[in-house]
Amino acid sequence: MRSFSWRIKGRDIKFECPQVVGILNLTPDSFYASSRSATPEEALSRAKKMIDDGADMLDIGAESTRPGSALIDEAEEGRRLFPALEMIRKALPDVLISIDTRRANIAEKALELGADVINDVSALSDPMMASVAAKFGSGFILMHSPNDLASGSNADVSTAEVGSFLEEKTAELLKAGLPVDCVVWDPGLGFGKTTEANWRLANEFDKLNAPGGRVMIGASRKRFTRPDPSLPESASNSGLQGTIRANRIAVGKGAFLLRVHDAREARDLLTEGEAYAS
């Protein structure tokens, strides 16, 4: 059985199996409607249910980056995020929390309020993000993404290209003073990639030379997981089975974190077949 170590805010945390990361969106427009929470109270209720369903960690975001979405300003992101984060942190003091943000100021305030990890889908687009992470020694999820997150354009990128990009961005984090043991790679499935490229990446997680083998898969209900990627998510065109398939493949190739909307199904995947066993 593989084990993983992740340094977060000065603690070296060891995991004996992959971890389930539950997605919590404080947005009115995230692509998967069932993940949205309109109030801090609703967010807390969803957070507790995710933990009950098998999530080990929560990933909280207040800005949608789905294709075609309108990016919000910093004040609105903070208004959505901080009250819910404070409530969740107080109620669930021992649960790891990552903050899905592209803004250094938002990340810094969130870390002060008790968040543990920065999940930066924009890959250091904010020039101050690396120094904020280094200041707190936070965990850092570094994602491969196109320059225009919400453009909807797709490219047939290779695993080697993704790895080179993440190596360059990791070097920026290390230069700022963040220990390499804090860094997790996310190849960014569903962000600016063709359906073929997404599935190829899932099958080639073992070719990514991530620090300490720490790689996250974020395939959950993305367009490429649906039976017909050209149509919206629906009961008849659900991405759940495709998500389970992608997670099963990636875990078999060494994925360390599974970022999901459906925590119970992800937990069942890890439990039923012990796909993480060597």
What does this structure look like?
This protein has a single domain (18-273), classed as Dihydropteroate synthase-like (TIM Barrel). 36% of the residues lie in helices and 17% in strands. The protein contains 8 helices and 10 strands. The protein has helices at 40-53, 74-91, 104-112, 129-136, 159-176, 195-203, 240-252, 263-273; strands spanning 4-8, 11-15, 19-25, 57-61, 96-100, 117-120, 139-143, 183-186, 216-217, 257-260. The strands form 2 sheets. Strands 8-7-6-5-4-3-10-9 form an 8-stranded parallel β-sheet. A two-stranded antiparallel sheet has the order 1-2. The chain is globular, with a radius of gyration of 17 Å. The N and C termini lie close together (5 Å).
Number of DSSP strands? 10
Shape: globular
- Terminal CA distance: 5 Å
Low-confidence stretches: none
Estimate the strand proportion.
15-25%
Q: Give the helix level as a range of percent.
A: 25-40%
How do the strands line up in the largest sheet?
A: 8-7-6-5-4-3-10-9
Number of helices: 8
The value of Rg in angstroms is 17 Å
SSE ordering = EEEHEHEHEHEHEHEHEH
